[in-house]
Amino acid sequence: MMIDLGPFSNENFDPKKWINSACQTRHPQDSLDKHMVDLEMKLQMLSEEIAASLEEQSAASLLRVPRSSRDVVRLRDDAISLRSAVSGILQKIKKAEGSSAESIAALAKVDIVKQRMEAAYETLQDAAGLTQLSSTVEDVFATGDLPRAAETLANMRHCLSAVGEVAEFANIRKQLEVLEDRLDTMVKPRLTDALTNRKVNVAQDLRGILIRIGRFKSLESQYTKVHLKPITNLWEDFDSRQRANKSASEKNENERLASGREVHSVAPSISFSSWLPSFYDELLLYLEQEWKWCVLAFPEDYKILVPKLLCETMTAIGSSFISHINLAVGDAVPETKALAKGLSDILSGDMQKGIKIQTKHLEALIELHNTTGTFARNIQHLFSDSDLQVLMDVLKAVYLPYESFKQRYGQMERAILSSETAGVDLRGAVIRGVGAQGIELSETVRRMEESIPQVIVLLEAAVERCISFTGGSEADELINALDDVMLQYISTLQETLKSLRTVCGVDNFGDGPSKREMDKKDGSQNTRRVDLISNEEEWSIVQGALQILTVADSLTSRASVFEASLRATLARLSTSLSLSVFGSSLDQNQVTNGTEDGLGGRAALDVASLRLVDVPEKAKKLFSLLNQSKDPRFHALPLTSQRVAAFADTVNELVYDVLISKVRQRLSEVARLPIWSSMEEQSAFPLPTFSAYPQSYVTSVGEYLLTLPQQLEPLAEGISNTDNSEEAQFFATEWMFKVAEGATALYIEQLRGIQYISDRGAQQLSVDIEYLSNVLSALSMPIPPVLATFQTCLSTSRDQLKDLLKTDSGNQLDMPTANLICKMRRVNLDS
């Protein structure tokens, strides 16, 4: 058996444990004694082998020790000699370094002297050459060899820059400028001919001459001059057609007057809006042809020359373009077309009274702008190889005719919205005869409710117009216009509410201490007026007043939805405009490397970004607004939000006044009813001293309160706009409680106004209060402690009232009210 010696090297070696483990590995047929003898013998043999090996290795180690000691001594001596050699080498290097630095410094001085001598030599050569060139330049010009003349002038320019500002060469400097102008003048007619007749090689040679003398601007100006005339002819084609049609019309009119018979009609004149796309198509075709030709003739400059031509073209026709836009927009509306006036005339206030800017004006302007936008996208694709700044300059020039109108966009939109909202039918209510108030109220509320979606649609259309025309760059002006127009509209609704108060018969009612005085003063008139109005008319007025709640609900919800939509639009503009403006300011390489085919970043060059890049202050103000729109608490129309809430409060106040008016009228004389102070009548029979039934004033109030839920529930279902009956029930219950609480407060106020009440009056009033309490309980309303105190104290006999107050001591009764009742019943609590 093999013995594993590993466990013997473990610090925690346990002999007993090892022996037990060894015994467990014996063969089952072997006896334990034999196994232990074999194990002992093997351990002894291993121990002897280990001892012999250790002795052998120890002897060998002792023999190697002297040899190792000698090797260590030798290595130490070698290290000492190496250190001495290295130290000597370091000293030699330091000496060589010092001498080398001095040598290098000397060589540097020599090199500087050499460079100066070479520069002086070259300058002397340039001076000598300049003198020679100056004397022979006229001969070169006389040969008519323009490339050689250009080379000579370039050499003269180089020599002059080499000699610097030397007084002796001042005349040569002036001579050079004159000669460059002369050569420029000689090149221009040949360049014009080459450009006109498409002579590629000649144009390239002449371009090289101008570049050699630093006159690239001459190449630009001459190229633009040659091609500007054909393009302006394309533009003037519209005016030519207009004049031709006008002349033909006048001629036909004269022939008709002279002959007295009809003559053939003239073709109708074409409008500018329908002619403009054809002009853009012809212009685009012309530019495409020039682009292709310039790629061959001027491969280094075509990215600049053709865009420059378009910029100069738009500058040349700019004033005429603006004038045509102005008149074309005016032609969109018959009134301004008849006066031959345009949008600028309306905005400046030079028009007749009653002539205002209309939606059709702005829509016509947007249509023209969209036509230009299509042309701009085609140009952006055509000039895609040009530098980003060049492309931006071109697109700005294309949109430039519309800039003056965009700057006044806020004024235009405000005028349009004001006019459109003023056209919404919001006539105030007028007082009609008895029986017609409900109809007038219902019609007025219907007009108010229908006007809300109409106005919201107008506002949404204004947002679309702003995006279409300005790309959102005038969003701040749009918001101001929307806010102002909504304020005007809500003010009109408020005025309409005032007229409804008169129709509802609550124009004199209001909150505050004047209610009681008004009820005392006008109680008889109110009672008579109630008597004149039938129950059907009363309920029609109540129904009409409740419908006003739908107006407030509709205005609140629609204004909230529109504002949320506007906030989302502003948030989208914040993202798109940020990418556009900041992307436009990137370096050309950054844009190309960051987009597919170098065009993705340029797609951001829309109408808004082109405007905002050049007006950082406006951009900063706009982006501040757009960033705020990302906050959920942000109100895009802050003043509108406040006015909508105020309008809802006014509506609630009016509805409450209408619902409580009948109660107020019925209770206005309760404090002064004669029955409270009536005395008992003498009779020979034991008759009851008071009516066992409540009086008519309180029964009418109770019936009204009990009927009111039936009027509220249909309206609540309509306002909730959901199938959730719980919401509708909550709405009806809320108003029911509000009216019932108001009725109870009015009743208690009247009760407190009673100066004296007899026993008979107290018993009758107790019956009245009990009836009203039953009505409140039927409506699931708690009985106010004050009213319960009146009920308890009035139902108690006068003799027992004092004891009742003493035994209660404020546990169930409202003590101030109880004391007041004692005063009414002339009960002295002090005795």
TrEMBL record:
Source organism superkingdom: Eukaryota
Task: Give the membrane topology, semicolon-separated if more than one.
Answer: Peripheral membrane protein
List, alphabetically, the GO terms of the cellular component aspect.
Golgi membrane; Golgi transport complex
Checking Pfam families in the record gives: COG7
**Location within or outside the cell:** Golgi apparatus membrane
Q: Does the keyword Ribonucleoprotein apply?
A: no
Main location (coarse class): Golgi
Entry's Gene Ontology BP terms: Golgi organization; intracellular protein transport; retrograde vesicle-mediated transport, Golgi to endoplasmic reticulum
Q: Which InterPro entries did the record assign?
A: COG7
Family the UniProt entry places it in? Belongs to the COG7 family.
User: What name does UniProt use for this protein?
Assistant: Conserved oligomeric Golgi complex subunit 7
Specify the taxonomic lineage: Eukaryota, Viridiplantae, Streptophyta, Embryophyta, Tracheophyta
